[in-house]
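Raw record, unedited: Receptor ligand binding region domain-containing protein
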Amino acid sequence: MSPGITSLPDQDFMPDYHQTLQEKTYVHNVTILVVLTFGGVLPVDLMKAGGAIEMAVEVVRQSILPEVYTNYYMVRRKGFVDCYEDENHASFLMTRYAFRDAVARGDPPVGLIVGPACTKSLESMGHIATDMRAPIMTSQGASLTFDDKTIFKTVTRTGVTVKTLSRFAFEFLDLHGYVNVAIIYDDLFSFFSVLGSMLYRALYYRQDVRMNPMDLPYRNISDYSPYLYRASNNSRVFFILADAQSLRTIMLTAFDLGMTNGDYVFLTCVWYKEKYWGDYTYRNSDERDEEARQAYRTLLVFRERPMTPTQNETATGPQDFAQAQSRVKSIAWNRYGYGFDNNEDVSSAVWELYEGILLWARALNETISEGEDPKNGTRVTQRMWNRQVQGINGTLAIDANGDRNCSYALLDMSPSSGIFKEVFVYDGRGQPSRWIRTVDWGSGRERAPPNEPKCGYRNDKLLCFLRTEENNHVYTAVGAVGGAVVLLLLGALLVYRKYRTEQALHDTWWRASYSDIKPLDNTVSRSRRMASPFSEEPDLGLKKVTVARYQDRMVMVKTITHKIEMNRHFLVYVSKVSSININADVRLVSLSSAKVNIFF
């Protein structure tokens, strides 16, 4: 039960520390400015994180910067407890203190800004901090916007980012050939809104592999089936980014739609255990727990994984993690009025703020030791980057771009116990990823479902449609109709060929008039007169013609004296003879029925 504290502590965590200003000369004076919400809602709200921040300041004062006077000051606006309420007001609070209140209070200049937790606030504060040359450190700000350090030159992120998450997600998707991915996310939940939109952007603009993501944000809905239907028309891999209760509702909807039989893959992200988004379990103590358990067999969870210490790394601060947890909870209760639940731990995001403050203190100490200007926040920031130290909950490794190299694990629910366990592990320090155990894809499936089903996302490929059992009658009917059509076409073709053949036989192309034959004088033999059996034909005076002109062509003439019947058998014979080419110059040209002459 909360002691009813509704405002920030008005006294320093170490009240006697400020008296040392009268007794000791410091080489440098600096203020750590903390800009966070105050209401116990967000993961790094001051009610939850205030104790860890004050513990970090204690370590800085006593161990890392004993020769530097380190002041800290916390600002917040009453009633602002979530990101959509906060928006850009944090920038106003920061600038008001840095340029007005700090001077009026006689506080040292701001040397480090801790926070904020919200993307829009961090974006505006990041621009101002860069102009101020003041380091700004946060365990939030997962957006890809802050990857560009040519703009956000003094921003250091000690928590998870979409940049590092997408690397792990790409590795998992590539292993199974997944390029079509649907992203369904709560657009009114600030954390999931940023995560969903940025993950879509990372997939869409991926350089090495062409991805086909589908962006499906939703707001204030209770029926998720239209979104699942739309997603199924494009993909079989769904990222579901929502709080725990909404996720369970979506998974039960997928169960009702028959999507949890192993043909689909559902993915979600749970950075760490945090009351802010709920307990990601299928159990809700209702009549649908068993159905939810079956649905969750197809759910895979991306989660931040603490890095293990490497050699030569030493921890700074409390060595006993359980003792540190207990102390943070005690400070939260006594100074900030927040009571942690019995099963509620201090989140990783809070410890990442703690570790970030210590990282800054080491960088400032090195800057002073090297004789450089400690007020040059840009230089101090550069010393915070591209290094790793042992933190209170694992290794804190910051890359050359000022972002944490996070380790992740992919979790799958054990069918026997119903508990999510690690199956695939990604190390952010460049170590190869490794499989711990095989994935249960649901319904006894041993292999991951394909990127696209054989029959397509909408089951509309023609061959698959005809082969389905329920459409066997359609297949049979189409086959029968098709066979009948083929037979009719063959019959029609035979009739047509017969008709064309008879028409060609009765064609009179071969009939020639005897009068059209013009004998050539130098090729005519007059040894004897050739009598014609047809008196009606004119007598050309030809005895034996061997060469003549017919229709402007030179022809050879062969005379047949015996009678020929002009019947079908003869016509077929003539047709065949006319199609024979002995060579390019010899073929049947025509027949004359006066004296039966054949012209070649």
